[in-house]
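Dear Dr. L.,

I hope this message finds you well. Following up on our conversation about the binding site, I have prepared a predicted three-dimensional model of the protein together with fe (ii) ion. For your records, I am including the exact sequence and ligand specification that went into the calculation, followed by the structure tokens. Please feel free to forward this to your student if that is useful.
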Amino acid sequence: MKILFLADVYGPAGVKAVQETLPGWKKKYSPDFTIVNAENSASDGVNATPETLTALREAGAEAFTLGDHFLYRKFKPLASFPIVRPSNLETEDGVGSNVFETVTGKKVLVAVLMGKFAMKPGATNYFQAADDLLRKHGSEKPDAVFIEFHAGATSEEQAMGFYLDGKVSVVVGTHTHVPTADTRILPKGTAFQSDVGMCGALNSVIGATVESSLNFLRKELGEDVGKARPEAPNQGPYVCDAVLIETDGPTKAKSIKRLTSRP
Ligand SMILES: [Fe+2]
Ligand SMILES: [Fe+2]
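The resulting structure of the complex is given below.
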């Protein structure tokens, strides 16, 4: 089964990047299922809104994932969408894992885990959470298992890759918004990449405008710069980072390929 996954969509530029790129990728690669991380798709980059999820769905997304930004906004308006938030959080809102059915009649388990390093606090033990969700969904017999690890350190992401190697089809990381070049099949067969990157404005600091990011950091460093908050840009050129995985059952994959629309 072919799974296409697009990393963190950041602000209006991110939505436009997906609208510009995803239809062509779907035509070219014919994925069985397309998953998009929408945790920064709102106009201010903070979580998703029904409007951004609708726009992304119209562009070709079939399921959505969220990361730590799930914690910054009310979840209820998003509840009717096919969406998964980090599973290792103690919350009654939404679900952290779900088995989706593809248009081709296949079952895909999609789950998000959240890391601890350089991350908003609240995540519980992610290794135990991974074991728990695999146990919980085992009886549903998914054809493929897609695990997204939303983490701030590539060390955590690589550790999770090896922890789940041979137990799931795919482990890919998100959250840093910068794609890594370690795309490969791990020794026991699981497809892996530490971080997939993002969809948004090319000339940005992980999606936010350069000016607002520099001001934000200057303030953190003690400079008196007044208002300083990362702002989402609304113009191109755009970039879209993704991975295309061909799975080979629920515990391994045949291939994983890094895709990017960088000009
Ligand atoms: Fe993000
Ligand atoms: Fe994040």
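In brief: DSSP finds five helices and 13 strands in the chain.

With kind regards,
A. P.
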